[in-house]
């Protein structure tokens, strides 16, 4: 939109749109000369331009700050490493990775995306969507098979109810301790008002290392980092303190990077060459208190019908890092 003002016209101006270098007159409107150009009738003309959204979010491309091989060979190697991974201790056959985060951040979508990669097609086993409240109401443990007839892979993704701003809504912080200690069973239905009361007999007997959580992932929407209000941030801080007390490693999965940056939406390979994404990684690192190296940008599958190489590489790279951190935990609590 272009607004053309001729001071000689007094309080009138013409507004038009520019299309293919042609000016199309849309109409006339009245303005206040004093506020627009100070009643200075010596002006020849005054033009007001509308700034388009892509100009507001202009992104500076920088030297890639992480090295990623965007090739089918790299995807295959990552899948092979994940398939062949074996926990350090024989008492653990599958590492358990707990996902925590606000509503609609992409926890369930991450599981669906990883499951899709290993199934070789799009899947939607975990309920995901854009509802205003958490679609996940149960504690779910999701093993993933290596293909339809394949063996279970050496990890389990654990999904929780989303964190919400209101008191008495979303995941109760007190439930986190029970989950971390392996005292909440699969399909346990959360009650936001009353935290879980583990079976007295089970709670007095320590859970096995296999049942406990070995790595925690905070799932954060890249488009909402700056908009995160005080309440969810306080909840995440309280959760982080509990997890720190148990020395469980933590990473951040920064989702929806394609929606946050136009360049990345156009080409996912630009994710580590985007100054905007780098700024968001640094911001979430500062706000959650985790190292920048522990922030993993990804794009979950959401509307695609076919798998995409770049998306697979980014997701598998993040999963590999989660397994590495779980390995560090097992090495610490059950050294060989």
Structural summary, described in words:
The chain is 33% helix and 19% strand. It is an alpha/beta fold and 336 residues long. It folds into two domains: 49 residues, no CATH class; 262 residues, Rossmann fold. The strands form two sheets. A seven-stranded mixed sheet has the order 8-6-7-5-9-10-11, with helices on both faces. The chain has a four-stranded antiparallel sheet with strand order 3-2-1-4, with no helix packed on it. Helix 5 packs parallel to helix 7. It is globular and about 50 Å long. The protein starts with a strand and ends with a helix. The relative contact order is 0.15.
| Mean pLDDT, all residues | 81
CATH topology descriptor of the largest domain = Rossmann fold
Shape: globular
Determine Rg (CA atoms, Å): 25 Å
Helix percent reads 25-40%
What's the CATH class of the largest domain, please? Alpha Beta
How is the topology of this model organized?
Blueprint: E1 2-5, E2 12-19, E3 22-30, H1 33-37, E4 46-49, H2 53-56, H3 72-84, E5 95-100, H4 107-119, E6 138-145, E7 152-159, H5 173-180, E8 188-189, H6 200-204, E9 215-221, H7 230-245, E10 250-255, H8 257-260, H9 262-266, H10 275-288, E11 295-297, H11 309-333
Helix pairs in contact: 3-11, 4-11, 5-7
